[in-house]
Protein 1
Amino acid sequence: MKIAFIGLGVMGFPMAGHLANAGHDVTVFNRTTEKALLWVKTYPGSATSTPADAADGCDMVFICVGNDDDLRAVVLENIGALAGMKPNSILVDHTTASAEIARELHAACLQKSIEFIDAPVSGGQQGAENGQLTIMCGGNEDTYKKAAPVMNCYAKKTCLLGPTGSGQLTKMVNQVCIAGLIQGLAEGLQFAENAGLDVHKVVEVISQGAAQSWQMDNRHDTMIKGKYEHGFAVDWMRKDLAICLDEAKRNGSKLPVADLVDQFYAEVQDDGGGRWDTSSLKVRLK
Amino acid sequence: MKIAFIGLGVMGFPMAGHLANAGHDVTVFNRTTEKALLWVKTYPGSATSTPADAADGCDMVFICVGNDDDLRAVVLENIGALAGMKPNSILVDHTTASAEIARELHAACLQKSIEFIDAPVSGGQQGAENGQLTIMCGGNEDTYKKAAPVMNCYAKKTCLLGPTGSGQLTKMVNQVCIAGLIQGLAEGLQFAENAGLDVHKVVEVISQGAAQSWQMDNRHDTMIKGKYEHGFAVDWMRKDLAICLDEAKRNGSKLPVADLVDQFYAEVQDDGGGRWDTSSLKVRLK
């Protein structure tokens, strides 16, 4: 299949690689050309100097960029992907962005008889590298059925959650759950340390029961050590939480703890930790 | 082994039953006599009218009551357990209480050459009934080694965390982690509902990754349905969080989210939900 992949960040770079390794004819575009050149050296495939050129004549175009404005730039502008895409092709957006931009992109695609899926992912850099991402999709079922087998090149699970925007809304639920969860864990671990307990032993016991979480199982050790190198950065989490808090105002949800944790992440940024991973909340509590 | 069990609440009742069913010679005491009589009808064993009488001549005395003051009453007062216990016997306290009362009871035991273990449990009513509790112990290793095989009648895991009080401190870590975790989950589920998503589908997807927790796996369905009948009540959680927040002041920990969630639980109580289980935070967010 002829595929374009736009956005070669820590996620997009290996994701595009999985597509190329699976035998697809992949053309990439990245805003900074260096990464596109590195990608071409690493994987079978080619690079272009505009999204429109990358998308030209493709059956599917995948995007994984930073935020709503980046999406408008690489999709909707003169040299954006839509300018190159052909009718009946499919645009899949892996960016974590707002539900509105998903609807906006979908509407623009409809004008050109192009199909659209919003498809934010979870699983982090490691999941992208191992091809073990979870993909939360919004769109119509026919389009999803065509896109899912291709996404499976880098997914352990894909799911259609509902109409356009549902993928983004589901990713927001994910981030809201994580915010409270990590803060609770950070408070607990810090309490354990201050109480003079052997924190590893404590986790060994309490992870057997109702306090267990993926974060407890996979992050307690690095949180205790103050190592925050797990990829998904505080800067990105703040972008995601801003989207969540904005959408919550719209749909009438109250997110008091997500709001508070967002403020704690702002403090981590103030301390120069914007690139630390999301488990770095602990550092706020010493 | 000759054993006394003091406190036949939703936890103590089946725990004492497991000891009796395992062949131990069990005598029970409960403040309200009705439950003691029901216990004697249900399990092989006898009941007495004071803790001292129950503890008389026992090798081990187990306690599972409500709070620090209850403990002082059933252990330290004239007709308390210590008045009946013999030297070299062991007192095991399963109450979730403060680390101070653990040290206080330990000091009192020492005066009479009695050994002491603080041993709060997790696993809830169901864990007590199925004999699948997790037991967090504080005390010295020799005492623990003698007590653990007996506690295994109702435990899936027991662990010695450190000196007297360490069991209570570990239980506090557990409750602090749970507070943030449930609130994050409650906010996420409520956001999902308000966004018009199929909440079950959302959980199916996000529970595959970094948002996963025991609470998500085991409570999302009843939270969505607004059914809060899982035993461990908001009233008890508030008692536990009060102990945590008090200890945090002492050891210099900051627990901003545990503190906030405690206030939300107070609102649940105000709405008549004191006996609902701890997942009822969701109801605050509609």
Protein 2
Amino acid sequence: MQHVISTALPAAHPLASGRTAQSPLVRALRGDRPETLPVWFMRQAGRSLPEYRELRVGTQMLDACLDPELSSEITLQPVRRHRVDAGIFFSDIVVPVKLAGVGVEIVPGRGPVLDAPLRTRDDIARLEPLDPAALQPIAEGVERTVQELGETPLIGFAGAPFTLAAYLVEGGPSKDHIRARTLMHADPETWDALMTWAADTTGAFLRAQVLAGASAAQLFDSWVGSLSLSDYTRLVAPYSARALSHIDGLDVPRIHFGVGSGEVLAAMRDVGTDAVGVDWRIPLDEASRRLGGRTVVQGNIDPALLQAPWSVLEAHVRDVVERGRAAPAHVLNLGHGVNPDTDPTVLTRIVELAHTL
Amino acid sequence: MQHVISTALPAAHPLASGRTAQSPLVRALRGDRPETLPVWFMRQAGRSLPEYRELRVGTQMLDACLDPELSSEITLQPVRRHRVDAGIFFSDIVVPVKLAGVGVEIVPGRGPVLDAPLRTRDDIARLEPLDPAALQPIAEGVERTVQELGETPLIGFAGAPFTLAAYLVEGGPSKDHIRARTLMHADPETWDALMTWAADTTGAFLRAQVLAGASAAQLFDSWVGSLSLSDYTRLVAPYSARALSHIDGLDVPRIHFGVGSGEVLAAMRDVGTDAVGVDWRIPLDEASRRLGGRTVVQGNIDPALLQAPWSVLEAHVRDVVERGRAAPAHVLNLGHGVNPDTDPTVLTRIVELAHTL
């Protein structure tokens, strides 16, 4: 396979545990204020990039995730183009679910769709543990990527158990995730079995990425905003902690991100992460207040502003950075993933601006 | 047309402004604590009822809304069945949009879908004001309904301008409403024109219902949870206030409801309403705290619990009622609309329980 753009990266560096320790991203996640404000974008690898769209022609999404050459190249594309301070491994939160034998595909324009939703005790009892050998294409994709990235850190990621469970129970994307939220109350034992399986499956996926060389780990609980604090604390957080326990003892900082997470920010921090990702709904100074002023924050440029005139967007980015100073450290990012119709030159311009602030 | 169930209502009462003034609902909305805790359910008229599904066979949703005999009968069905303390007029928030000449249909399982999204300054400049004469089928549906309801109040309702604008700009339901949120920042003048039109169109729809006999009015801002407080206050709230100004001088209490509205509760109250509807994400005592302890609350049974065992649901309803005591008054409701697959006997049981609390 040919790299569509292949000039802009530093030469390959040997793998070494300390190779990214001095990077702005890792330093910020550890609570430091590096000279350069680190910036990356959720979903930076993907459809906003013409070189990605070209590379994906003829390949299904989950097949691309399981092809180490492709997943690595796609991960590197936005790092070359935007000169962001981190790559995030190109994959999907349902990849470990698929590798554990659950029938699921990513339907374009819709998201993950299961062959059949899992709704009963029997459905869930049939789930198989993930065979670690199945994660080999992930490990290989990460290894290739970090060799190319050199001193630029790679972020490994995984979906949190609740978000996975929402897809599994609903059978696909859903509004309010009411069937999943019903199950947690209607049949707590089945919920426990499902969430335990999800935690161990996604935890193994995250561990494989870190062992293969990722320098940080982000847990995405995309749908956490549908929960009350009480339900989150009692029926969700313990499983997120269990997922993260799979990387205990591996010395990488952890980020935890959710959409609409204003009510549960501190509880998300308390499952055992170093930094909390904040969407666009609350400003970072308010987020930091809710976190007791002692937690690193990531975010929170409103993706809706990416299509506003540059003067409006620039003022917003500067405001985000200014409010981020309320926290011990800040990693600049969007408040949600890059939309496919985003003009990628705008993202590059944000990186250039961030590196002057 | 035959009424499917037609026995359980009190005999028709003459229309009179004071006919529902002593009802538990109206008293609670005015800040009183009536002997009976008033209860009704958002989307109580609809697909959860077999008598509704029977009546709707062969009729499109928006055609049903514009047939006074049908809209009235559908509105009355849940009042007869559940003995709730209010009817809510059977309609849809896009009805006034359609009556103003915009091509829109309700697609089953999806929601309102426009013939073409409205995204440019020119699209929006072409919007026509709503001819008051077009509201005649609404007024007639309400008049028929209140004659049957007697001392039981009817709630009129309308969608808030932001929620309407989200449908208009996106062309249908959407996640995060990013195109609408982009427009408000990218082209504030066009946003102002769109929101002003939406406020006047939906305001006229609400006014027609109140003039025809509705005893209360609810403004639904379903998608308000996608907004930051800053955007809401600056770019949305003024238009919600404008919509409600259409019923200034008509002496009915006003309820304002949004989903995921924890960040904007007090700002929603401040557009000029008497009561605030709260979804399931925050408990009513916390909602009341955010409202300064001086605002009537409505809600907030979690719809996800409607399929839990009765003992779990009963404990939840009792907890909601107990926490609602933190507010000056409380109207019991769900935190969101009744799901179509809800067992309606559960709703009846909640009403029976509420009336003992």
